[in-house]
Amino acid sequence: MTLETSPEVESRVVDKQLALVSVEDVTKHFPIGAGLLGGGSAVRAVDGVSFEVRAGETLGLVGESGCGKSTLGRVIAQLHPATSGKVIFQGQDLVPMRGEKLRRMRQELQMIFQDPYASLNPRMTVGEIIGEPLKNFGLARGKERSNRVHEVMRTCGLNPNFLNRYPHEFSGGQRQRIGIARALVLNPTFIVADEPISALDVSIQAQIVNLMEDLQNRFKLTYLFIAHDLSVVRHLSDRVAVMYLGKIMEIADSHSIYENPLHPYTKALLSSIPIPDPDLEAKRQPILLQGEIPSPVNPPSGCRFHTRCPIAQFPICSEQVPPLESKVDGHLAACHFAGQL
Amino acid sequence: MATAPSDYVFQDEFTADSTYEVGEAVSLWKDAWRRLTSNYFALFGLAVIVLLLLVAIVSQFWTPYPTWKQGIGPTYGGPSAAHPFGLDQVGRDILSRLMGGAAIALAVGLGTALLSSVIGIALGLLAGFYRGWVDTMISLLINVWYGIPDLLVVMLFVVIINSRELKWIIVAISITAWLNMARLVRGQTLALREREFVEAARSIGTRDVGLLTRHILPNALGPIIVQATYLIPAAILFEAFLSFLGLGAPPPEPSWGAMCAEGYKSLQLAAHVTLVPAFALAITLIALNAFGDGLRDALDPRMRR
Ligand SMILES: Nc1ncnc2c1ncn2[C@@H]1O[C@H](COP(=O)(O)OP(=O)(O)OP(=O)(O)O)[C@@H](O)[C@H]1O
Ligand code: SF4
Ligand SMILES: [Mg+2]
């Protein structure tokens, strides 16, 4: 029996209205200089985020470097404990789970990492790396395990003859395939992919994206796909969430985000993407954001974007936090003047 | 390609993609071996170690004369054809005793390196991995242990065990020698536990034991081997010192340290009785340290001073 005809995959629901993962008011603060006198401050990497990922969809998560995307991904994948909030997966809150219960849960919820060099153990062979998840859960032994590893390697475009090679003998693109195979071998439902292509050569990026799309169709996977740039996730996301300084600024289906962005930050990000059509490119007017991204240790009051927003109005923008709310049918934005730029 | 590509298509892609990177890097160990064998001082060390090992093994089956047998020839007899290194204060053959001493030195060196490494690695892994109160306790133990003189620990141990058998001497030296290994492994573990492949291993449901044995330990092996190599000469020297003081393996065991001590009283009369084992000890220590340095440089060129 192959993986895609297994009962787990057969019974998997693809219903893009149904929440598979619900993130509820999640925060992740990294304490700094804590200890002495108690009153240490913290990096507020993720600061009150709520959204859902729907069964079978790809949700793109986009934002500039340092805005907390990886941290959010790791909190959802339970690699960092959340400071507060809930991550509800298949009806259960993962945040308070510990030990064996959490370990069991990991079968369903996998992660693909940004750096295909750092995320593979240099002392293990490819076969050992891809077989390890099976070993951890006692899922297949001996011949059966190696058959599964072979199958998954082929599925991910890796030559099974190279089972006994070490990661350093492969190129970046192939290493990323190894990372994908490792995540896939457990037959998970949900995969957090943290910038899976940004470390790769441009020529290889499309191959990896195609592979991930193919796998999604065959195994009815749900993705949270993290990228730092809206153009990367454009054609593979069903919906897109835009993050700034630890908060979600806008979330909507891809079409609405790209055609009708409501948040000035999204608009600025979009305007900075070059357009392949030379006529349109000539007319493109990039909205240049002034200033640096503020520190997540001390984020601006009110709307976090007010220090750089071209349409900010005072004092409202610096005093009142704009809630992330529906502006037009299911298109959520966190801005007092959404759609006015 | 976008519509359900077959496995075959991916295989093609694979071969196309793989052409430019095959043979990109030699394995780490092969590379280290190449660097080691181009270092003559380290090779000299290795040669002496191999010789020592052979002599030690041979001595278990054959020596020119029994190592314990007295009155084989004239007391304090000088070097001769029958006794290349002469005879000692009770007329024992020094060459035979030197050979037996090589076995003792190696047993002590390797035994101590192994046992103290096991202790140091285990405690270092636990402290570095679990941090928190586990680390606090282990670090406290290390710091307190550092403050207590090794000789005192060994003497107390020997008194408590009430035996000077070689295996107990090895245990006694080991419980003083694990501290540096524990510190090293703790530091390595603290750094390695933050690496992304360890996080990745956690995400695929690897238990703590697996994280420690499959992911952290193998990646700390280079520095551990180097540290263990330095433990060997240190233990040999310590055992020689103990025997010199009369605290080592009891007579008539031909420990080099004991041989030095016995000949020391008659240094002016018959210098060879002391000089021969002292020279053997010196050569052995130099060789082992040279090999250790070579290994360190070979395994981690960045550590070179
Ligand atoms: N373990 C940590 N300890 C302290 N601060 C951290 C830690 N991890 C991340 N941070 C901080 O949290 C903030 C968000 O980091 P994060 O890596 O999530 O950003 P990102 O959006 O993924 O950025 P990038 O595009 O560079 O990957 C940054 O300011 C970062 O310095
Ligand atoms: S709330 Fe104000 S500052 Fe924030 S994005 Fe909207 S207009 Fe700009
Ligand atoms: Mg990141």
UniProtKB/TrEMBL annotation, chain A:
Q: What is the name of the protein in this document? A: Dipeptide ABC transporter ATP-binding protein
Chain ranges passing through the membrane = none
| One GO MF term attached to the UniProt entry | ATP binding
Q: Which InterPro entries match?
A: AAA+_ATPase, ABC_transp_ATP-bind, ABC_transporter-like_ATP-bd, ABC_transporter-like_CS, Oligopep_ABC_C, P-loop_NTPase
The biological processes this protein is annotated with in GO are:
peptide transport; transmembrane transport
- The reply to whether ATP-binding figures as a keyword in the UniProt entry is yes
Q: To which protein family does this belong?
A: Belongs to the ABC transporter superfamily.
From which lineage does this chain's organism come?
Bacteria, Bacillati, Candidatus Dormiibacterota, Candidatus Dormibacteria, Candidatus Dormibacterales
Please report the stretch or stretches of sequence annotated as the ABC transporter domain: 21-270
What domain of life is recorded for the organism? Bacteria
Keywords, alphabetical: ATP-binding, Nucleotide-binding, Transport
From TrEMBL, chain B:
The chain positions of domain ABC transmembrane type-1 read 102-292
Transmembrane parts of this sequence: 40-62, 102-128, 140-160, 166-185, 224-249, 269-295
Q: Which GO terms describe its biological process?
A: transmembrane transport
Could you tell me which Pfam families the record lists for this protein?
BPD_transp_1, OppC_N
Q: Which UniProt keywords apply?
A: Cell membrane, Membrane, Transmembrane, Transmembrane helix, Transport
**Mode of membrane association:** Multi-pass membrane protein
What are the annotated GO cellular component locations?
plasma membrane
Q: Which family does it belong to?
A: Belongs to the binding-protein-dependent transport system permease family.
Identify the PANTHER family for this entry. Answer: D,D-DIPEPTIDE TRANSPORT SYSTEM PERMEASE PROTEIN DDPC-RELATED, OLIGOPEPTIDE TRANSPORT SYSTEM PERMEASE PROTEIN APPC
What protein is this chain from?
ABC transporter permease
- The record lists the organism as Candidatus Dormiibacter inghamiae
